[in-house]
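Good day; I would like, with your permission, to put a structural problem before you. A protein sequence and the structure tokens that stand for its backbone fold form the material at issue. Thank you for your consideration; the sequence and its tokens are set out here:
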Amino acid sequence: MAPPRNVVKIAVQMRDAIPQLIQLDQAKPLAAVLKEVCDAWSLPHSERYALQFADGHRRYITENNRMEIKNGSILCLSTAPDREAERLLRGLQSESREGRREALRHLLLLAPDLTFAREVISRDGLQRLGTIIEDGDDLGEVLALALRAFLELMEHGVVSWETLSIPFVRKVVCYVNMNLMDASVQPLALGLLENVTLSSPTLGQLVKSEVPLDRLLVHLQVMNQQLQTKAMALLTALLQGATPAERKYMLDYLWQKNLRQFIYKNIIHSAAPLGDEMAHHLYVLQALMLGLLEPRMRTPLDPYSQEQREQLQALRQAAFEPEGESMGAGLSADRRRSLCAREFRKLGFSNSNPAQDLERVPPGLLALDNMLYFSRQAPSAYSRFVLENSSREDKHECPFARSSIQLTVLLCDLLHVGEPCSETAQDFSPMFFGQDQSFHELFCVSIQLLNKTWKEMRATQEDFDKVMQVVREQLARTLALKPSSLELFRTKVNALTYGEVLRLRQTERLHQEGTLAPPILELREKLKPELLGLIRQQRLLRLCEGTLFHKISSRRRQDKLWFCCLSPNHKVLQYGDVEEGVGLPTPESLPEQLPVADIRALLTGKDCPHVREKGSGKQNKDVWELAFSVSYDHGEEEAYLNFIAPSKREFHLWTDGLSALLGNPMGSEQTRLDLEQLLTMETKLRLLELENVPIPEQPPPVPPPPTNFNFCYDCSIAEP
């Protein structure tokens, strides 16, 4: 008979005793269970004992967590938490250094348990640990154990960090500032000050005034990963607690001391792997660095600011100064204003007064900062961008100013500028520590990428939002790779062309649909021969319908037409000249015939003889992309029948059909697209009944055969 659901079978052990195997009734009070366990071992005063989990942190069993006991759990009988707390706190006052050390070690072992921690705290355990830390009689292991135990007890949140005394915090600061200090003490002291700074603004100001930035830089430059991590934690805590002006001053000072270069070379690219905690602190530091851009992002352009008007004029002059000088000399004020307004339009502003474009927040003045940085740091690329687009047709030009404003918004969104830091995120980008002015440099790469993508998409003004979506995807995908430098980012993002983005979208869509699962791929492979046969049949039918082709004279004129088709029995190509304006001829009326059996090979592109004879050039490229020929036996000589397809589609259909006639595979792009479309449709039809049914990656294993086949029925034996 199965035991009731609230009864679990467990083992209880005790030192120097035979373990007990009992059935624990979860409905029975814990005190009664303890009484039964103690009685089995003839132990009086069961209230002096408690049960603990035998593994892990040896947590005490209470009425709150007893449901975590499962069948097969191993518990141990130990001293009750209140009596154990009293014993260990008495040990902290021992005259013997070894006695204090043992008491601290045992206290540290039990401190993660909330039940035990409450008993210690209620008996002024934190004050006793604080006394050991403040006295500082032993700067070695005893101090390190006391700090660690203090931190463990405070982590439970029973007591607020704000209750710590100023002398206590100052003493911990002394341990951080000491030159000769035990290596195990300073990381703990730094960790304690980090918690104080994050939890108490008042004590945080004390820590900020007592711990100089230079001291933290010294700790960061020590090749001790734990010390580096805790120093970085305190540094980010101090930065988070500072005002925006103080934070800017602190970061500028740290950058002057080459902290960025040190982080990049000795922490990010250290031989030792980067820990999760350090990765989080680097993420916070990156977020705080980018957060310095928020005031500019939230500030609109002031049309009455002389400085900002001059910056706009500098932007215009950097692109059009030679032209402006030649056209503006000796002009009236009205004519000069009209000229400036036209040039601002060419620059890509939506309004003749560019201040109106920059009144939007975000990006506010940050967009102007980016444009100015690009024009000054990459003047040739800036001039090329503006002049190249201003020389295009109006509908095809990529507006620099509008693109810059939208791109700045996009970058702020991707990099979470101005958003509060996550408490757990580790998503920092190494390249922001490998480059000064990293945000502006990233903008310079991104604006050139936008212009490149605009040309690849052959975009018009109506496609602006579509281009920005593609650029966003290009930047997001590349940033997710966490390139280690700006140059590597530039290389990777430029390799992610518009065509590659489309391919990745298609692949991801197929993954979401489950089309790339191994069983589906196997099904597609089985369907391919049948569908290729269907495409082959369609191509041959198209050849039987026939097509009008142009003849190209020596002067490159395409004024003569001829018609070619395949006979219904697929054995003869029939062709002949056709007069313009006359309907399509019937196959019987065509004078020339070419038996398919006489065809040797199919030639395409530059291999065709009628293309080789015409020389080279841009016009010729348009021709050879549509050219194909068939070579055939004409007596003892080799002759050619030359074609110029009227369109790319006709080129694919005819080359596929002729390849099928010759027994060769159909390798055109049109065949690939048709096959993919047919495979997708056929696969979906086959899987209609399996909708919402998960398809396993691997087929289920075939069970082994039975040991005998005695269960088989012998049909040859007649029944009586």
In short: Confidence is low (pLDDT under 50) at residues 323-328. Residues 518-545 form the longest helix (28 residues). The longest strand covers residues 627-634. The radius of gyration is 40 Å.
